[in-house]
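Here is one chain, start to finish.
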Amino acid sequence: FRTRFNLKDPNATVISEWPAAVIDKHMTMHGHLYLSKNVLCFLSKVLGSVKKIVIPLEEITQVEVSNRNVVVSQQDKKFEFVTGRSDGIRDSIKAQINEAKLSGTVFQGVIDTGKEEIDWSLFLNGALLKIYQKDEPILREKETSRFVFQIGQGTARVERITENGIQVFRTMGAGELFGEISFLKGGEASASIIAHENDTQVYCIEKQFVDSLLDLNAELPGRFYKFLATSLAGRLRN
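Its structure:
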């Protein structure tokens, strides 16, 4: 937790954690909301792009529920988090704000790593967010696809047709990728990916769009392909 958000406080630990999403530049980015003794943090990783939000509790002026979302306000900005437990999360944040005031706990800030993040806004503008219902195919076995996919919310199962019928190999959850090999090399999908629950949200990005970015920013595709290779290598190891 401390390393993930570059927190200076050596004793910073997570008190509560919730699945959540935040709307950033008209795109919903799924991730997790973390509450510590003096700071509220959010982290999302979408197709290689990392979104971090760090909100010191002493700077929060209001926490409310609006349209079933948790809205956290500072003096000059607001963050709206899409969650499934809005009232409970609001109450937990408020309780910790009061606890921090009573104990005199003060946010110690973040460590400046000196690293500049590459602007992924053009890249993310090409990502589509699709919603699937339970048992709806996301990608069919032997289907030709030039997309790479990442589950934003929900789960999906991996199925293949065998001599004994349809066999389920595993279930994937939020943050997992699939379709990398077809995306990189072309060809047919080696398995079907089926939504395993209602309202499963999946990010999709087309290879043609990624290739077009080569003419705009040579760093973006290189970082993206490194991200794909790292993801694929990790899955093969497991």
